[in-house]
Specification:
This protein is an alpha/beta fold and 225 residues long. The chain is built from nine helices and five strands. It has helices at 19-23, 75-81, 85-88, 94-105, 116-129, 142-149, 164-170, 181-198, 215-223; strands spanning 29-36, 46-54, 59-66, 110-113, 139-141. A five-stranded mixed β-sheet has the order 3-2-1-4-5, sandwiched between helices. The longest helix has 18 residues, at 181-198.
C-alpha cells in the first residue's frame, strides 16, 4: 500500500481565464462538501461527504454519506449541522466512505469545493490515516474564483461577502439545509454555474456559441416540429 507523502500538494486549477474552455470541453466535474467534528484535519474527523457529478450538459449522479467519527461530535456542531451522534452511530467509518467516494469521483473528474483547502485537508488527512497518497484530481476552489469573477463584492457591507451562503443569497440560490454536505454541494453546483456564466466576458479566446443549449429547450424545439 503506498505511503502518504506529506510534501505532495493538490493540483489546483487557477487558470480562470480558460475555465469555460475546460468546462465546455465535456470534462466531468464533481462539486463536493464535507462536514467534520472540528476545524483541524489532523485531530478532527469527517462526519459527512456530499457531492454532485455533472458536465456541461447534465447532472450525472450524486453522493451523500454520513460517517461515524472515532470521537463524539461536539454539541455546538450538532446544533449547526443537525448531524447528531445518534444519527451517525450505525454509519460506516471514514475509510469505507472514502473508498466509495474515490470510486464515485474517479481519477479524471475535476473537483470543485468552496474553500477547497479545508475540505481537501480533511479528505487527505483521512487518506494519510489509511496509509495512502493524497487525492490527485485537479481541483477548483470556488472561493478565489468568486473573488476573481466579482471583485466588487469585496466592498459589500455584509460580513463574509464570499461565503457560500452569502453568495447563494445574493444570487437567489435556494438553500434547503445549510451546513449539510449534500445540500451545500447542490448549492455550490448552482453557484459555480452562475459564476462561470458571469465570467464569460473575461474568458480568454472563448467562443460562446459552443455553449450547448439546455436539454429542455432542445426538447421544446423538437416538440414544435
Amino acid at each position: 500500500m503506498p505511503q502518504n507523502n506529506t510534501s505532495e500538494k493538490p493540483a489546483m486549477v487557477r487558470d480562470y481565464e480558460n475555465l469555460a474552455k475546460l468546462f465546455y470541453s465535456g470534462a466531468t466535474f464533481v462539486v463536493f462538501d464535507t462536514e467534520t467534528t472540528g476545524l483541524e484535519p489532523t485531530r478532527d474527523y469527517l462526519t459527512e461527504i456530499g457531492a454532485v457529478k455533472f458536465n456541461c450538459r447534465k447532472e450525472i449522479e450524486s453522493f451523500d454519506q454520513l460517517i461515524k467519527p472515532p470521537v463524539p461530535i461536539p454539541h455546538f456542531l450538532e446544533q449547526l449541522t443537525h448531524i447528531t451522534n445518534e444519527m451517525v452511530a450505525d454509519c460506516p467509518d471514514a475509510s469505507t466512505v472514502l473508498d466509495d467516494f474515490l470510486s464515485f469521483i474517479g481519477m479524471d473528474s475535476i473537483l470543485i469545493a468552496h474553500n477547497a483547502p479545508f475540505d481537501l485537508g480533511f479528505l487527505n488527512a483521512q487518506m494519510a490515516r489509511m496509509g495512502r497518497s493524497i487525492i490527485h484530481n485537479r481541483t477548483i476552489d470556488s472561493l478565489p474564483f468568486a473573488r476573481w469573477v466579482h471583485p466588487e463584492f469585496r466592498s459589500d457591507t455584509e460580513k463574509g461577502p464570499y461565503k457560500l451562503q452569502t453568495l447563494a443569497k445574493r444570487f437567489s440560490i435556494k438553500v434547503l439545509s445549510a451546513h449539510r454536505a449534500d445540500d451545500d454541494a447542490r448549492v455550490l453546483k448552482e453557484l459555480f454555474l452562475r459564476l462561470l456564466s458571469d465570467s464569460i466576458p473575461r474568458q480568454k479566446n472563448f467562443d460562446p456559441s459552443i455553449i450547448p443549449r439546455p436539454e429542455d429547450e432542445l426538447q421544446l424545439e423538437l416538440d414544435l416540429f
